[in-house]
Amino acid sequence: MLGHDIGIDLGTATVLVFVKGKGIVLKEPSVVAIDKVRNKVLAVGEEARKMVGRTPGNIVAVRPLKDGVISDYEVTEKMIKYFINKAAKNSYFKPRVIICVPSGVTEVEEMAVEEAAKNAGAKFVSLIEEPKAAAIGAGLDVYKPNGNIVLDVGGGTADIAVLSLGDVVLSDSVKMAGDRFDESIIRYLKKKYNLLIGERTAEAIKVEIGCVYPQAEVKTMVIKGRSLNTGLPQSIEIRSDEIMEPLQECALTIVDAVHNVLERTPPELVGDIYQNGICMTGGGSLICGFDQLISQKIGIRAYVAEDAVSCVAIGTGKALDYLDKLESSSRSSKRFRSF
Question: What is the pTM (predicted TM-score) of this model?
Answer without folding.
Answer: 0.86
